[in-house]
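Whiteboard transcription, Tuesday session. T.W. wrote the structure tokens on the left side:
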């Protein structure tokens, strides 16, 4: 059977790009494989796929029993198909904290490393095969690194991520600042999305001290476009929280260029989170958090109620 390769729901650039990269690698090394998506990719991911000549993979709602799968850019069952434990997961390649809860039919290859980007990890796993990557795959890999590191601004950035991105850009003849600006402009174009779609576009569920959150992050070079919708976004948070079975949606609008995040504060719970988690002084319905760029490293580990 063909091995399906997919990342998390609400696919971003690293999730989509890594699925396509590992699809190429498995086929290159003799294992029939096909990338899939678990939802509509965000605007940056869609731009990257088109820029490097890829059709967006088909979206699947679930996986069949015994379907061979490789999971990339997540290990969280909440971000995976409902039937994942009945599929045949053969590998997990990720750079997030270990969540647990995935059951497999036998021993598998699991690689989780503290890098900014799954694609960086994949390059290292390829060994000598990396030299055979076509330019389109190199372009995806560069895009994943620039996206997840916010062009090296994120505190998750490692020397390995940076060095690989610089090397790939050199091989492709790409100027990193110019290409990153194109990517971030695509990411910032959210005009076609509803408030509910924005709140779910790049989000992860997290529970602390008995309170369940949907932690949403919108990374943009034009934060005003999102913040102009502040009132309707905060109103929609109630609906999204009820539909998704969480107590509160937290929305962080990350200003890539100014290296700060704005947290919307619709109620006392969110105010308490802002004050206890980030030492912020909240006086209105939004608060600016200087230096906050990374959900993985700076937001989720800090959350307190």
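and on the right, the sequence the group agreed on:
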């Amino acid at each position: 059977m063909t091995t399906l390769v997919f990342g998390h729901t609400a696919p971003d650039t690293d999730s989509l790009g890594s699925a396509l990269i590992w699809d190429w690698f498995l086929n290159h090394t003799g294992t029939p494989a096909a990338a899939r998506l678990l939802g509509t990719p965000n605007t940056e991911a869609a731009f990257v796929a088109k820029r490097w000549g890829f059709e967006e993979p088909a979206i699947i709602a679930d996986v069949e029993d015994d379907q061979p799968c490789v999971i990339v850019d997540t290990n969280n069952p909440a971000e995976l198909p409902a039937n994942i434990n009945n599929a045949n997961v053969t590998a997990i390649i990720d750079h997030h904290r270990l969540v647990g809860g995935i059951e497999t039919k036998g021993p598998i290859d699991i690689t989780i490393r503290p890098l900014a980007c799954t694609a960086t990890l994949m390059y290292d796993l390829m060994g000598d095969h990396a030299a055979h990557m076509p330019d389109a795959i190199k372009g995806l890999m560069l895009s994943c690194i620039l996206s997840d590191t916010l062009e090296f601004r994120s505190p998750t950035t490692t020397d390995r991520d940076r060095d690989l991105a610089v090397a790939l850009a050199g091989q492709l003849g790409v100027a990193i600042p110019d290409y990153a600006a194109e990517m971030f402009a695509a990411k910032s174009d959210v005009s076609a999305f509803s408030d509910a779609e924005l709140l779910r576009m790049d989000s992860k569920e997290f529970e602390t001290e008995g309170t369940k959150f949907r932690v949403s992050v919108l990374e943009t070079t034009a934060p005003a476009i999102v913040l102009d919708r502040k009132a309707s976004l905060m109103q929609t948070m109630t609906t999204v929280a009820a539909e998704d079975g969480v107590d509160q949606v937290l929305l962080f609008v990350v200003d890539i260029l100014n290296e700060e995040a704005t947290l919307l504060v619709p109620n006392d719970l969110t105010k308490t989170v802002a004050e206890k988690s980030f030492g912020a002084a909240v006086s209105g319905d939004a608060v600016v958090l200087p230096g906050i760029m990374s959900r993985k490293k700076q937001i989720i580990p800090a959350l307190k109620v």
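Someone added at the bottom: The mean pLDDT is 97.
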